[in-house]
Every structure is written in C-alpha cells, then in structure tokens.
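FIELD: query
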Amino acid sequence: MMNKRGQEGFKLVNLILALVVLVVIAGGIWYFTSKAQSAATNIPGNAEVISQACGLVASEQTKTSYCTQLREIRTDEYITCDGAKDYGISITDADSMKSICAGETNNLKKVVESACNNEFKDKKSTKINGEICKY
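FIELD: result
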C-alpha cells in the first residue's frame, strides 16, 4: 500500500513550483515592458525629421545651418545637427561636417548665448545640446 502522506507533499511541491514559475514569468514581462518603454521615450519623436534635415544641409556643406542652427528635439530642448549624435540620431555625411563644426565653436557659443538671453530667457529649464541655459 502507498503512503498517502507522500502524495500530499508532492501536490504541495507542485503548487509551490507553479507559483514560483508564475512570479518569474510576471517579473520577466514587467521588466522587458518597462525597458522597452524607457527606450522608446529616449528617442525623440521628431528624430526622423531632424535626421533628414541635417543630412540635407550636410550634403550641401552648409556649415551655418549644420553647426549652429537650433532644432527643437523635445519641449524646451534644442540641438544642432552636430549635437544630434548624442541623442542617437544618425545623420548621413556627419563625418564630413565634424571638422567644419570644430571651427564654428565661437559662432555656436554666440548663438546659444543669444538664444538663452532672448528666446529662452524666461524658461530656466531649456537645454541646448544637452546643457541647461546658463547665460
């Protein structure tokens, strides 16, 4: 005759294992959906528009538009085409413009200072190329 007590323990072990598996599955689903949502919010909604516009001015070698023109990437956040790479936006011909923009540092500082002092004067949280306006 079989021991009934052993069979009861087997049922309890199965129940505990099933609960552990369900908790692990639920935790995995939560983890991956939260990671997917955070990855989606880090990419700006108008990234494709910025990529196309910057690619166009890069192909025309228009240094003023590429290196110093501010483009809105999010509310109260602006970038230049040269700063787009920091937001994961890829631009065709960006490598050819890198050396050109290195020579435009003073002009970019003037544009940023002017924008912070005029357009964004009342907005203390405005960022340009990742830095908060401090002028």
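FIELD: remark
The chain has five helices and four strands.
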